[in-house]
């Protein structure tokens, strides 16, 4: 991933946290006919220093047959258009243009496939739990008839990536002057879409981190 130093995010806990938040990955693997891409939800496993990302695809999807190849998982976080009128410097010299703010994480590593029923059931239970646990009446895999679930597990194949490289880009106007950043933060917070508000919140966090502890 191309990421200038000011946008690069290298903290492992932050990168893994973003993966957990986004969940949906674009899994990209090279094949004989070019690149194969599948969008699929991911379960994060941490085994000591090892990071493992698990997902699954429909058995008719040929992606799982590419297991063994080095692959890329792309996690696209919040993203938003930046209106140049939000920059304070526009009134000073007019040398401003639109841009885009975004958060993205790339995970690189080899893929392996698994289709043992017990492994798939554990994977599906974890994937379900991470999305249902906070609900008042969470749904559980065991809520469905056992034979029905078994039939469904035969229709999917699991994919597991052992992550060899993790990289992130938090492109949040870090290189702009204070007034420009503040203008963008305020402008984004006034937008109606959730991504703009999320980017605004992330920019506020960055501003807070810029303030020396003694001045807080």
From TrEMBL:
Chain segments carrying region Disordered: 172-199
InterPro entries: Split_barrel_FMN-bd, TR_PAI2-type
Protein name: Transcriptional regulator
């Amino acid at each position: 991933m191309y990421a200038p130093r000011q946008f690069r995010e290298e903290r492992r806990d932050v990168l893994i946290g973003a993966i957990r938040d986004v969940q949906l990955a674009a899994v990209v693997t090279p094949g004989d006919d070019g690149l194969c891409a599948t969008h699929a939800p991911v379960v994060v496993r941490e085994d000591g220093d090892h990071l493992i990302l698990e997902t699954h695809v429909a058995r008719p999807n040929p992606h799982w047959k590419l297991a063994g190849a080095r692959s890329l998982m792309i996690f696209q976080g919040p993203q938003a258009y930046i209106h140049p009128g939000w920059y304070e410097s526009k009134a000073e010299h007019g040398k401003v243009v639109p841009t885009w703010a975004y958060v993205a994480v790339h995970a690189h590593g080899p893929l392996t496939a698994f289709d043992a029923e017990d492994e798939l059931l554990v994977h599906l239970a974890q994937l379900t739990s991470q999305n249902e646990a906070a609900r008042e009446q969470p749904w559980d895999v065991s809520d469905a008839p056992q034979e029905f679930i078994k039939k469904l597990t035969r229709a999917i194949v699991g994919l597991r990536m052992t992550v060899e490289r993790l990289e992130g880009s938090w492109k949040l106007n870090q290189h702009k002057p204070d007034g420009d950043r503040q203008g963008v933060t305020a402008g984004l917070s006034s937008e109606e879409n959730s991504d703009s508000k999320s980017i605004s919140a992330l920019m506020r966090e960055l501003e807070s981190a810029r303030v020396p502890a003694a001045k807080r």
